[in-house]
Amino acid sequence: MNSSLSPDQRATLVLKAMTQDEKFRLIRADFGQPSEGRAMPAGALTSAGYVPAIARLGLPALQETDAGLGVAKADKSGGAISLPSGLATAASFDPQIAYAGGAMIGSEARKKGFNVMLVGGVDLERDPRNGRNFEYAGEDPLLAGTIAGNAVRGVQDQKVIATVKHYALNAMETGRNTLSSQIDEPAARDADLLAFEIAIGIGHPGSVMCAYNRYNAVYACENDWLLNAVLKGDWGYPGYVMSDWGAVHSAGKSALAGLDQESAGEVFDPKVFFDQPLRAAIASGEVPQSRVDDMVRRILRSLFAAGIIDHPAKAAPIDFAADGAVAQKAEEAGVVLLRNQHDLLPLSPSLKSMAVIGGHADKGVLSGGGSSVVYPPAGNAVPGLPPDGWPGPRVYQPSAPLAAIARRVLGKVQFNDGRDVAAAAQLASHADVAVVFVEQWDAESFDRPDMTLPDHQDALVAAVAKANPHTVVVLENNGPVNMPWLDQTAAVLESWYPGARGGEAITRLLFGEVLPSGRLPMTWPKDESQLPRPQIPGAGLASIGVPPQGQPADTVDYRIEGADVGYRWFQKKHIEPLFPFGYGLTYTHFGYDKLKAKWADGKLVVAFDVSNRGSRDGTDVPQVYVTLPGENHTRRLAGWRRLTLKKGATLHVEITADPWILAAFDGQRKNWQRPAGSYRIQLGHSATSFEGEANVELPAASFSVRRSRASP
Ligand code: BGC
């Protein structure tokens, strides 16, 4: 308990005092809830994972809870506040929003008695149909890593260990327990692994979760290259690696590869590997005792570093109103205005009549499903929708857009649930404005086979838009979907899964009480044919009426696009998406000029003026893209700034390009190379729309993998 010693010193002292049985108790967690006839372990909190306390040593129990959007499965303890999708937070392009969200959910976790939170999803979006995109932070490594890293920082500042996951390349759900993600080292280092490296470098998470899938044929949780060579070796990561739930396939091999803690093996793995089988591997000499000691030291070190030993979690009341305000702000900053013909938005409260249609907008807003779903304190606003079992339930946050709209509009507001298309169109035809809420429930454990909205919602929107030219569509979904009706609509808002106070946030944006400022954290394809892999064999979920076609594949070939994920793929292939990465409208417009880029003191600094050229105040996100010299390079986001400007105002801005984006991984030399030559700088409103360009000469440099940004 001598807090003047470092976490490493303290961990080493505790380790010395531990018996072998105590060590073995720390390197595996039990499932923290009852399951399949098993009782809940005494002392657990009905959650994802539990390691009993070791009272003799003053070690508290490890109470692990999901996940990135809030304290999941908290129904037994009064519910919790859900943030909007990780994609909404990423769309804010605002590290402070990410931090505030992390701090809010971390504080709720702590007040509920948890000290480990499985938060920090940073797998890159390589396909809009991936069922878990909403838990992550989009397709760009710098943006995703920055957002996830700041969320982790927020959580850990509450004295709760965060867990960056799912390491690595768990980029789709179909066949995830066996699927092998095939990728070359330079591509992984420049894209997916870079996102992890950045998140870990910013957030210093106490743990990292290895993924279900195989990585180049070897299971992620027994992948010596991923865990030992890259994470712990190159990046110098000092914390512990915990497995995903059911991701362990061996004792000795996993232990030697760098896995430090097995999660809920008694329920999800073929057997508990990190008990008898690992003891046997030690007895036979396959695994040295020093490896087990290293596992324990790493876990203890993270407990000390996060402040859990000095400040144990204590139950405390939660201020749901204050926490809801944090979720609302994240949503307000993350909604993306995709279309706004003739400035239909913002709406005026003095409308005489308004039709609100579909999407259960009379009850609440949709959440994504699976282990991350957060139960609202007031309960699920629309219980009983399919699926009956996992990855359900389908949860709606009780924040009804209809009520929020009705509170503002002076005229008549009428609702139609959208099931009868003709009746909905009829209602719309008599209204000044029609707002249609469309929804798509996606969840952990499955991907969509295509980008089509379910339940005849395309027909609904088309009919309403035909009946009323002032039709606004609000999407509540995981991300890009086909919108065959787009040209018929007046306005479209992407609200993601909007979180605990989504109805209020969406309404405030519709009426201009807050101005849209979100930018797409992924490219929005026109359709599936534009994707690197137009089909996902075996994608779907029968229990929601989307039966999988064919068998899941054994492998997924990410060498097709390599590091050219998202906007870089579209550039390389010379294809136009529907909406580019970084795109988003607001109720004013911005212009850039006087761009100057210079290389000085080892930094690439891009300076320019931003002007608000419209008639309202607003928030803009100028983006700096850099193309390395040489052939075959696509542009990369190297920096951005989120800023708010009064109408007519101009601001001088300087953005320093991220130094790692200026280098590319060299597979032969096994280091990062920044080639000498002319670097093309483009100042973007998005990844495809530029206002200002410059070329700057940079000298050559190389960076060792061991001088990584993720090193402590
Ligand atoms: C998910 C993890 C989650 C864990 C514990 C797994 O199914 O992949 O993200 O943290 O369950 O619930």
Write the layout of secondary structure elements.
Layout: H1 7-17, H2 20-26, E1 28-29, E2 49-51, E3 62-66, H3 86-91, H4 95-111, E4 116-118, H5 141-156, E5 161-167, E6 180-182, H6 185-190, H7 192-203, E7 207-210, E8 214-215, E9 218-219, H8 224-234, E10 240-243, H9 252-257, E11 262-263, H10 265-268, H11 276-283, H12 289-306, H13 320-334, E12 336-340, E13 353-357, E14 365-366, E15 396-397, H14 401-406, E16 412-416, H15 421-429, E17 433-439, H16 457-467, E18 471-476, E19 491-494, H17 502-510, E20 555-557, H18 567-572, E21 590-600, E22 603-612, E23 618-620, E24 623-627, E25 636-640, E26 643-645, E27 650-656, E28 664-666, E29 671-674, E30 677-684, E31 690-698, E32 701-704
Parallel strand pairs: 1-11, 3-4, 4-5, 5-7, 6-8, 6-20, 7-10, 13-16, 13-17, 17-18, 18-19
Antiparallel strand pairs: 2-3, 8-9, 12-19, 14-15, 21-22, 22-27, 23-26, 24-25, 24-30, 28-29, 29-32, 30-31
Helix pairs in contact: 1-12, 4-5, 4-13, 5-7, 13-17, 15-16
Residues 48, 66-67, 118, 165, 244-245, 371 line the site of beta-D-glucopyranose.
Q: If you had to describe this structure to a student in words, what would you say it looks like?
A:
The protein has 18 helices and 32 strands. It is of the alpha/beta class. The protein has a domain at 590-703: Immunoglobulin-like (Sandwich), CATH 2.60.40. Strands 2-3-4-5-7-10 form a 6-stranded mixed beta sheet. Strands 12-19-18-17-13-16 form a 6-stranded mixed beta sheet. A hairpin with a 4-residue loop joins strand 28 and strand 29 (671-674). Helix 5 packs parallel to helix 7 (192-203) and helix 15 packs parallel to helix 16 (457-467). The longest helix has 18 residues, at 289-306. The protein is globular, with a radius of gyration of 25 Å. The mean pLDDT is 97. It binds beta-D-glucopyranose (BGC). The site of beta-D-glucopyranose has 8 residues, from loops.
